[in-house]
Amino acid sequence: MSEDKKPLTLISIAETAKFYTSLCLGITAFISVFAFLFLIPFIVDPAITSLMADYEPEPVTCVGTQHVYAEGLTNCSWASCREGCTREATRCHQIYVNYSKIPFRDWKPALNVQWDVVDTRFLINAEGCGYPPSVNCTEFARQYGYSTAGTPFPCYYSRVYPDIVVARYSWDETLKHLILSITIPNLLFAASVGVLSYWYCPGCGKTCNKYMHHFPAE
């Protein structure tokens, strides 16, 4: 009797393990799809836009010319910084700058600078928005607006759209985030679906078994 119960117990444990593993794989595939859809507007699309804008990788020289603090949807048609990328800004900081293509590391106060672009909009990053703690619009305005006008600081301009100037940009970081946000959810989804298909798809088992006759039987 005990010999009959032993294989049944092992089979039962194996089936239970397979059930819970399948459940975890199914949940992983489901979450991977929604994670990828969530990452598209927040990371994938902004990263592609940033790479296509072809920002100058080395910071150039900017100087603030005007800082406007506005309230109300009609007055905040654009914002240099917005905490949250999916909602309209009811309070906003609008900062304008001049910039020269002189690298910031070569900047000297005695230089007679001819600004390449004047009074253009200045954004915290390529999207002009983000989420705390990486994006703090009050701190951003304190650093680049108010009484700091006239003080040179590093910035990045777009080679494709010269009127776009941002405070933060890294080609390496942008590319890394783009690759990770695409590969990780899709690899998890493909691996989960692949294992589930192998276990539960009858055609997959037949495809594997039809090659078994090439191997000699023991």
Automatic annotation (TrEMBL):
Entry keyword set: Membrane, Transmembrane, Transmembrane helix
One cellular component (GO) term of this entry: plasma membrane
Gene Ontology annotations of biological process type: regulation of sodium ion transport
Keyword Transmembrane applies: yes
Transmembrane segments: 20-44, 178-200
One annotated GO molecular function: sodium channel regulator activity
Coiled coil: none
Protein's name in the database: Protein tipE-like Protein
Species whose genome carries this gene: Tribolium castaneum (Red flour beetle)
